Amino acid sequence: MVYLFMRRTMVWFSYLCVLISTPVISTEMELLWSIEGKFNMPESAAYDPAREVIYVSNVNHYAKDGNGFISRVSADGSKLELDWLKGLHSPTGLAVRGNTLYAVDFDALVIIDLVEEKIINRIHAPDAEESPVLNDVAISDSGDIYVSGSRSRTIYQLNDGELEVWVKDNERLKNANGLLVNNNYLLHGGEKWTVFDKISKEAVSSLSPMGKGLKEFDGIAEIGTGNFIVTLIDDPKLWLLREGKSPQPFSDDEIKGIDISYDDNTNRLFVPRVGNTLSAYQITR
Fold this sequence. Notes:
Helix content: under 10%
Distance between the termini: 27 Å
Shape: globular
Low-confidence stretches: 2-27
CATH topology: Neuraminidase
Number of helices: 1
Radius of gyration: 17 Å
């Protein structure tokens, strides 16, 4: 996520807002709708099944300047609350659990009450003064919360209201980016694809080939058991990763996706895209 700003900020475009329906993009996904040109450097999407909305982080120039915000979009794309929540710097990764939205914001994890619709806490990284440039957030089914630090090459865990170093690895966590918890594993995509065992915190070598040949990972989402869709900073397509198989393109067209979110109940994939756009796709696998 954060690393993409150095690579993508020169290619953001301005469009009019429009809801559209188009033919099938590939045999496995169909574009349902897009909202174009309304966001300001959209980075991450997080679907909230309880309220049937998508939250979208808007970086709005990456800096600790208080100009970042979060948008809220109805699940059918018909309603957009662009400035739903202000008071952030440059929000990137988002994750929803119950009535709480977790947002990564430059050097802190921001906790947002979705009932009150307000920020209730801001938890800084232990090395915040060293500019860790926090990136993504992921939550396990049991409630464990992990945050990636791009510049610090660290994955943090939230424990007793504080972010603590979970793993620091200068090689595997270079440009640390997307995170996803999958059972006993923590999937990570930055410059390299790495899967960590949650108990031992060691890299799982048997799962490394899933991402072989790809680099500069950004968003990660699971679609069905053991099937993972990823976005890449330097590749406009979506890619499918599966254990024991080589990566395969998942989209025929150029999606230019960033940090994605998938809803298991409706099989819909929500994709912030380069060009200040949010798109929803029906996965037909």
